[in-house]
Amino acid sequence: MIQTLLRRPSGIAETAADVLRALAVVGIIVASVGWGPLSGVSLAVVAVGMLVPRLLGLRASVDIAFGIVVLVAVWSSVLDIYITTRWWDLPVHFITNGLCAALLYIVLVQLRIVADPDSLPRPMLSTVVVTTALGFGLGVIWEVFEWVGHTFLDPAIFVGYTDSIGDLAWGGAGALLAGCCMTYLTDGSVSARAPRDSLTDTEA
Fold first, then answer.
1. Torsional sign, CA 175, 176, 180, 181
2. How much of the chain, in percent, has pLDDT values that exceed 90?
3. 115-124: per-residue pLDDT in tens?
4. CB 171 within 8 A of CB 139
5. How far apart are CA 44 and CA 24, in angstroms?
6. What count of Cα atoms within 13 Å lies in the side-chain half-sphere of residue 80?
7. Start-to-end CA span in the chain (Å)
8. Band of the pLDDT at 197, cuts 50, 70, 90?
9. What is the pLDDT of residue 7?
10. Which UniProt keywords apply (predicted)?
11. Rounded CA gap, 186 and 11, in Å?
């Protein structure tokens, strides 16, 4: 994993993904100065999270998509778009939670905490079920985080029963879709792989 993280980008798409990561780092400073330290911390968390697709060696298009989605999600929070446009959080939950659940599933498989689906009799079904469950779990954690933020940090953070159930439902649906698309997200296998450069050298 570390070799995959540290290797140089190969091609325009991987370079674009790294540019997004650089923008996230710049965003930490911008958000901290313009909107306060809490916003800066949010950008910092996102910047760290954006390293995960590269660490896992996922295809560049997935890396770019994840970077764009999480940046849109966090800046929507910083700019209060979730408050001014109340429906906006639903599609964001759908896409963000789906991608996060997929990445978490891949991490758990590569750490051998969850069984490699290729070793199971129904790999596709297993992948979809576990990814969906992880998505709902992440959704619950996020709702708890929102409650903590509302209660102890900023009362402006909106919480409510209908909002929470809607967020969980949309996030779970996104995780379900991500599970169904896992073959595309991982180039066919969620098992740990060597960096592409190493594979090329071996084949040569």
1. negative
2. 66
3. 999 899 999 9
4. yes
5. 8
6. 6
7. 22
8. very low
9. 80
10. Membrane, Transmembrane, Transmembrane helix
11. 18
Q: Any idea where the domains of the chain sit in the sequence? A: 1-79, 86-195
Look up tokens 């169904």; give the residue.
Answer: 180
Q: Could you tell me how many helices (H) and strands (E) the chain has, helices first?
A: 11, 0
| SS3 category, 1 | coil
Q: Tokens 């999270």 appear where?
A: 49
How high is the pLDDT of residue 41?
93
Instruction: Work out the burial of residue 133: count CB atoms within 10 Å of its CB; fewer than 13 is exposed, 13-18 middle, 19 or more buried.
Output: middle
Q: What six digits make up the tokens of 109? A: 């498989």
- What mean pLDDT do residues 104-111 have? 92
Q: Please tell me the pTM assigned to this model.
A: 0.85
Q: Does 196 or 113 have the greater pLDDT score?
A: 113
What number of residues does the chain have? 204
Q: What Å distances lie between residue 101 and 57, 66, 200, CA to CA?
A: 16, 12, 30
Cα separation, 36 vs 186, whole angstroms: 37
Distance separating alpha carbons of residues 127 and 142, to the nearest angstrom: 22
Mean per-residue pLDDT, 52-65 = 90
Cα–Cα dist 83/87, whole Å: 9
**Which residues, including other chains, have CB under 8 Å from residue 158's CB and lie 6 or more apart?**
82, 83, 146, 150
Residues 6 or more apart from 65 whose CB is under 8 A from it? 99
What residues contact residue 71 under an 8 Å CB cut-off, 6+ apart?
20, 23, 24, 27, 46, 50
